[in-house]
Amino acid sequence: MPAADTLRWVHEDDPRWDADRERVFATVPEGVFRTEARQSGERLSSDWWRVERGGTVVGYGWLDDVWGDAEVLLAVEAAARGSGVGVFALHRLEEEAAARGLNYVLNVVRDTHPERAEVTAWFEHHGFVAGEDGRLRKRVGDRARDIGQHQDGRPGTGEATPPSDGRQARYLAERERAAGRPRRDDEPATVGADRGPGEEEMGGYVDPEQHRY
């Protein structure tokens, strides 16, 4: 039986808004994510993973690779912050991006984030570089940017493990689904429809208005 403090990274094949998300995101300070009402059972697009500790969900990771690189966000329950859950989720998201053969993971800390400077510094400590456009970017597998994190087994310390056939099929299906719903930059999101990259979880650290390609 796994230890109670062991973290598990669980992919959600059919991500939907549920009680665990409601609980975790309710502890996130105002201004971190876009304020948006969710309905129980509402389907969420792109890829979602939950972080579990002792059978309890303590955080989430999100990734969208429709545009060639990987936009990522993470959320950690207040009681679990500072215990390694955020670092765990970030590393797993980097590994997922590397497995897809992507070049960069990207993140934007919103201007309204109450701890914007601290969170930006946290990402920079873990190898992200801030650009003039406000985006934080890290080249997957580039050890020179992974400050103080050169341990064996970390993302970038070896060749990326190719995804399984099932996972690769899921990635391709997601790309095809996204390609079938093109949307202009000036086209507003439709209520109840699948949202574009960055809009899936109340904006997250990824601001779609600052982060379109």
TrEMBL record:
Spans annotated as Disordered: 146-213
Basic and acidic residues composition-biased segments: 172-187
N-acetyltransferase domain location: 4-152
One Pfam family named in its UniProt record: Acetyltransf_1
Gene Ontology MF terms in the entry: acyltransferase activity, transferring groups other than amino-acyl groups
SUPFAM superfamilies: Acyl-CoA N-acyltransferases (Nat)
Protein name per UniProt: N-acetylglutamate synthase, GNAT family
Upper classification of the organism: Bacteria, Bacillati, Actinomycetota, Actinomycetes, Geodermatophilales
